[in-house]
Design a protein that fits this description.
By secondary structure, the protein is mainly α. The protein contains five helices and no strands.
């Protein structure tokens, strides 16, 4: 499923077309698919940890912000939000490049 997403997503295909050569494009696709399979496991672990730390939390959408607020120190909270916005800007950049070409 992850490989089909990587091949069918135009923004990711655009990034592969800008690779140095064919080997780099293939290697980046394989490496990215391995990372793509790791992310759901990480999210599942964070959700299970939120159930243990905040057992009375009624709204599941607030689990990750509560975990960030409770567990991380203030400097790492800022780093988490900056990482979120960096990922968002990277995705928007790829989509803008796709729509431009």
């Amino acid at each position: 499923m992850s490989n089909a997403y990587m091949i069918g997503n135009q923004a990711i295909a655009q990034r592969c077309l800008t690779a140095k050569n064919e080997w780099h494009a293939k290697a980046s696709m394989i490496f990215a698919s391995a990372l793509k399979m790791f992310i759901p496991i990480l999210i599942l672990f964070l959700g299970l940890m939120a159930i243990v730390v905040h057992p009375g939390l009624e709204d599941g959408d607030k689990a990750l912000p509560m975990m960030i607020k409770t567990i991380l120190p203030l400097g790492l909270v800022g780093l988490m939000f900056s990482a979120f916005f960096a990922g968002l800007m990277s995705s928007v950049d790829s989509l803008l490049l796709f729509y431009k070409t």
